[in-house]
């Protein structure tokens, strides 16, 4: 954990709600992001995670609630009242998207320079003479190049600084997006599923990059992630959403053993949660996650035995095993109230965009 956790939260979300017509995507959500921490938001598909980001970054105007951003210099901003460009420039919040949004035809270096466009234009006095002659602009331009170089080295892309960004491997593009966000000097960096689609080596590089960002720049990180290996390894604090409501909030090891979280990921009925809580409270149980899986597997086998007609030759076809929360869900069943008894799924990064 970072040393600054005892400080005031950088972001306070209070009674946040977001409705789309009759659909309640976020319901009276309260959470805090501590300054200098990596805070993860997890939850099944459709839980409302990206919607929270869209409210924080001004893409959506929330239906209700307050989002207070407190900067290091003491300035406070009510994000729900600010337009998105001021959320970036004044409140110092940067984000990446669930789907990659680089300029694929520009090089990594150019992508990082474009991110600093506002600072450069300001130093030019917004005039052509400024661009051509003002010493302030020349200094700012050199500083922008230096910053871009720093981040290219940090993400191991200095050797590919002049290739089109669209030609880079997927993991490198993800890191470049994060570097681009960092070039805007954020105090809060919001990352929407940065590990989606990464192989284990790229995932490890990402973990290191995020820990470096936290430890070396002091930037607070708010992370949406389905990859539990990433969440459990680098997060200081985890918030779990289900159907737009917070169901758990705490340190990673506490959250991973929370029966409500296990149930949300496995997709069990409400009454089963009560049973799980009882069983988890039993001192003889070493690992509640294993217990939940064993319990549900037994139940699934019994269900299958009941459902399958005995005449079927070759034995019953097994249902796909329900997964532990500490793994990426893989089935493609959509989330929804009607699918409560099914393991809810994670879609591939290539599907759709938000
Ligand atoms: N612009 C919109 N209009 C209508 N409904 C929306 C809109 N944006 C999100 N929703 C709905 O709000 C709910 C939450 O969506 P959201 O994208 O926040 O989920 P998520 O937790 O990010 O899911 P995933 O893990 O699949 O990315 C979903 O039911 C979604 O269909
Ligand atoms: Mg999402």
TrEMBL record:
Similarity comment text for this entry: Belongs to the ABC transporter superfamily.
GO process annotations (BP): D-alanine transmembrane transport; L-alanine transport; L-isoleucine import across plasma membrane; L-valine import across plasma membrane
Residue ranges, annotated region (Disordered): 303-354
UniProt name for this protein: ABC transporter ATP-binding protein
Keywords for the protein's UniProt record, in alphabetical order: Amino-acid transport, ATP-binding, Nucleotide-binding, Transport
GO MF term set: ATP binding; ATP hydrolysis activity; L-isoleucine transmembrane transporter activity; L-phenylalanine transmembrane transporter activity; L-valine transmembrane transporter activity
Record-level GO cellular component terms: plasma membrane
Segments forming domain ABC transporter: 11-268
Keyword Transport: yes
InterPro entries: AAA+_ATPase, ABC_AA/LPS_Transport, ABC_transporter-like_ATP-bd, BCA_ABC_TP_C, P-loop_NTPase
Keyword Nucleus: no
Domain of life: Bacteria
Species per Swiss-Prot/TrEMBL record: Phyllobacterium phragmitis
Feature: compositional bias, Low complexity: 308-318
């Amino acid at each position: 954990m970072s040393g600054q956790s005892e400080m005031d939260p950088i972001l306070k979300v209070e009674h946040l709600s977001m409705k789309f017509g009759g659909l309640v995507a976020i319901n009276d959500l309260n959470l805090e992001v501590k300054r200098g921490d990596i805070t993860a938001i997890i939850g099944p598909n459709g839980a409302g995670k990206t919607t929270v980001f869209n409210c924080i970054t001004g893409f959506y105007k929330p239906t209700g609630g307050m989002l207070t951003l407190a900067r290091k210099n003491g300035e406070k901003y009510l994000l729900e009242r600010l337009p998105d460009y001021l959320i970036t420039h004044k409140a110092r919040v940067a984000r990446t998207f669930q789907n990659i949004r680089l300029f694929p035809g520009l090089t990594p270096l150019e992508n990082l320079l474009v991110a600093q466009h506002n600072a450069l234009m300001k130093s030019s006095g917004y005039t052509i003479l400024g661009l051509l002659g003002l010493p302030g602009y020349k200094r700012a331009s050199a500083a922008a190049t230096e910053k871009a170089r720093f981040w290219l080295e940090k993400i191991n892309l200095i050797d590919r600084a002049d290739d089109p960004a669209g030609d880079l491997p997927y993991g490198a593009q993800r890191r470049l997006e994060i570097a681009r966000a960092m070039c805007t000097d954020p105090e809060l960096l919001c990352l929407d599923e940065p590990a989606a689609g990464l192989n284990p080596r790229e995932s490890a590089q990402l973990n290191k990059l995020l820990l470096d960002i936290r430890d070396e720049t002091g930037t607070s990180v708010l992370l949406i992630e389905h990859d539990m290996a990433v969440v459990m390894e680098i997060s200081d604090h985890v918030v779990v959403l289900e159907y737009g409501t917070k169901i758990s909030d705490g340190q990673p090891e506490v959250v991973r053993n929370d029966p409500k979280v296990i149930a949300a990921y496995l997709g069990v009925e409400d009454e089963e949660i009560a049973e799980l809580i009882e069983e988890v409270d039993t001192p003889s149980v070493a690992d509640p996650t294993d217990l939940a899986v064993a319990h549900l597997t037994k139940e699934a086998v019994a269900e299958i035995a009941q459902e399958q007609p005995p005449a079927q030759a070759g034995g019953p076809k097994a249902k796909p095993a329900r997964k532990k929360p500490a793994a990426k869900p893989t089935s493609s069943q959509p989330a929804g109230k009607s699918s409560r008894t099914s393991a809810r799924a994670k879609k591939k990064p290539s599907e759709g965009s938000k």
